[in-house]
Amino acid sequence: MYIATLGPSGNNHELIAKRYLTRRGSGKGSVTLFTQFEDAFQALPCRASQPCTAVYCSPGPQ
User: Fold this and answer.
1) In what order do the strands lie in the sheet containing 30-34?
2) How many CB atoms lie within 10 A of CB 52?
3) Which of 51, 57, 9, 45 has its CA nearest to residue 26?
4) What is the pTM of this model?
């Protein structure tokens, strides 16, 4: 599984994406960080043989 999300490294986007891979993707796959979310969507190589997703974390209500 290929996951595209926003950088920089060490942020919550990366943390959640890696947790998702561990829990749902058996740890197989990769996380690629981008500076703009639109670039992350365009980089996804989605096809039946290669599942992919974009992860966007947003703050919940306070």
Assistant:
1) 30-34, 2-6, 52-55
2) 15
3) 51
4) 0.69
42 closest CA partner among 50, 20, 30, 34: 34
The residues that bridge with 39 in the sheet, in sequence order, are none
Write phi, then psi, for 57 (nearest 5 degrees).
-100, 135
Whether the CB-CB separation of 41 and 3 falls below 8 Å is answered with no
Q: How many C-beta atoms lie closer than 10 Å to residue 3's C-beta?
A: 24
Residues 14, 9, 22, 44, CA torsion sign: positive
E strand map for 2-62: 2-6, 30-34, 52-55
Q: pLDDT digit string (tens) for 10-62?
A: 988 889 888 888 888 666 788 889 998 888 888 877 766 666 666 666 665 55
Residue 56 DSSP symbol: -
